[in-house]
User: Fold these one by one.
Assistant:
Number 1:
Amino acid sequence: MVTERRGCRINACLARGNYPLRPTTSETNLHAWSTAARDAFNQHWRLYIFEGAELAIFMISACFATVYLFDPGFPALHLIPSAAVRRLLMGVAMGATAVLIIHSPMGKRSGAHFNPAITLSYLRLGKIARWDGIFYVVFQFVGGVFGVAVSALVLGSSLAAPTTDYAVTIPGRYGTAAAFFAELFMSSLLMGVVLWFSNRPSLANYTGYLVGVLISMYVLFFAPVSGFSINPARTTGSAVFANVWTACWLYFTAPLLGMMSAAEIYLRIYGPAGVLCAKLHPDARYLCPFICHYPLHRHRIEPAAEG
């Protein structure tokens, strides 16, 4: 009789939905993940917006420069008949934009990645928390699309013309394989330069300028080969509006493979202690959101507490 009464009480509790069942392991993990995601978003949501805004600005600059230099409706195409000179001017515009972003207050706060391949490389290096990395990547993709959307609203049909086509990235006349290896080379070199200079306090202030120079040279020499992307979110932003997804896989795989390879080589040579921070500019006046040991950087949570 005692067992029957106990069974009745259990059944009654189950029927009311208030029996204190122990959560399963999957439910516990899901709750922990959602809590970690919410905490990361509440603490760093401004940085995520900054990352999206940085790529949006970069895309707006790319779209405007493409229209002004390559649309027949604008005088540059007629005044500067040399395609190489126009690519050089395009490269200078894009490189200067990158330098300004990296040295801006936004860039000094968020780290100025504005590229999922860079963020994921720093995630591999253990310099950025998992949920920060995830949100960085999501907002970078959103920012890329938003930047092209703003450009399309302002520039109208000029951005959709065949000679501009939303600054879309597609393989050039040398084919897909050449485009893949061009993107791979550019990405690995860029990440190698960033890691080498940004992790040396005496040289770190020059990292942004070197990134700008590399971008300028990449546009000049490699735009005819791959269209110059080295950034999956940049390619996506243009492809969404141009509806051109030709060999899109290579603009996702080559930059990630190139930057991850450079990060892995650097890590094998210099070890974890050789990677100080994930910022491209080391300005100590701004709090560092990363798992960082850069001299004089300040944090809301000490790096030891993040482990």
Number 2:
Amino acid sequence: MPRREEHSFLRTDATYVLVGGSGGLGTSQALWMASHGAKHIILASRSGSRKEEVKALLETLRGQGIDIVALRCDVSRYSDVEKLVSFANANMPPIRGLIHGGMVLRVSLQSVEISIIVLTQQDTLFGRMQFQDWLEVLAPKVQGTWNLHNLLPQKNMDFFIMLSSIVGVRGNASQCAYSAAGAFLDAFAHYRRSLGLPAVSIDLGKIDGIGFVAESNEQTSKRLDEFGVSAMNERQYLALLKVAMEQDPNQIITGFTPYSPDHALPEYQVNTFAFFRRAGEAMKQSASDDGSAPTRVRDALRLATSLEEATTIFCTAFVQKMSVLLMVVAENIDFSKSINDYGMDSLVAVEMRNWLFKEMDIAIPILELLVNQSLSQLSGKLVRKSNLTKSLFTNGDA
């Protein structure tokens, strides 16, 4: 069994590869992973250990007893990845995890490695783009990912994380190559999962304090704001990495500004993004209720003078909870339909059952909750099971 410290979740007997790890984001990732148990780290980038900040990182972590190396590696070249894997096999424990954040973007005629969405003066519409520029942008994301997929271990990998971009989800007319590269990573995550292999794509927006945007000029950050990209901080980004490593979702999308009818992004009106619109509406509705809402409902149920009144009170509260759990606008939930009509699966049903027990004093099996019956009928049955409405039945109202 791997050795772990109590506060750690990463293996001490494994090697972790960070591609594109020579920038601020890579430095942050390496320090964070070392603080959570990682003892063997490979930073793979085209610049290797030439940058002063990389040299400082190596010195810091080696001083803490971390086995860390910075290798020159262009992941779009099969031979470079082959050499990286050969080096790891000969000198380090088995590779168990990857964070692929390398990217090439042409800025002022110079290629730079980044791992975050960028908007520059050199962004070009597809019809005006040079084919070589298209190839350079796609190479690390597309060919690089294929090389990593083919050469890294197929078995016993704990995580295979690819840093994509919100542009791959939303699109951007002047960043067609970047959008295509991001969309490829999202699709590739699903492809690996279909093979039974771990894979997560994280569609990044803007990260405050670290990464290319933080190190760039204010104009880049301003253009991202105008594009409607919301920011996260370093702590939030690292928390997302932990989710990707431990929970292994297919895809994590960040950077969408919360939906608001007053200033919604145009994308929210497209069916593709209807989920985000519904989620925003449900969150806004949930936020409008203060913390005393459950207490008010409980008091109202206790004071109800008839089963009909109690059922109406309960059904309203039940629909509000459905709205939050299923991200469906409450006004669109029809009391004559069943809970199954709104996509209530067994996992969400567990949350609903826990809420019923905690807030409404109702104990009910999950299967009974998922029986095909209207919400009105279900509410009537649940009200009869609540300890809050015992007085109604004591007085003979049933």
Number 3:
Amino acid sequence: MQKFADEHPEFLDYGLSKTEGGTGHAIYAKPELPMTNPVAKKIRCEIAHVHPSDNSLHVHISPRDAREIITAGWGMRFSVQGLAPPSWVSAIQSITYNFSNQANSNGVDNGVCATG
């Protein structure tokens, strides 16, 4: 993720996940950009974060993009209902990726690009 953020410094920031309490790294859309979705600001413009303990990646993504990712078999929906503050729940669809092969890795790249 850091490489991805470093390749797009005009759009992205890299740091510890605010939605996960700083337990893993995350990429963020720059909140000052005019194209930043106002709904994304509810989750502090976090696009994705990693869970080092199980090597999973959670990506906050639009319902349309989530449908494409799930249909392609690149990831599965991870509900934040009951885990996140109520104001965040309507703002995000969270997708969990699994890194079992190169096709899944390409899906991750495509999914993360779609969020930015």
